[in-house]
Amino acid sequence: MLGVWKKYRKWLVIGFMIVWMTFIDRNNFINLYEYRSELSELRGKKAYYQEEIERMKTDRAIIFNDSKSLERYAREKYLMKKDNEDIYIIQ
Question: What is the C-alpha to C-alpha distance for residues 39 and 41, in angstroms, rounded to an integer?
Answer without folding.
Answer: 5
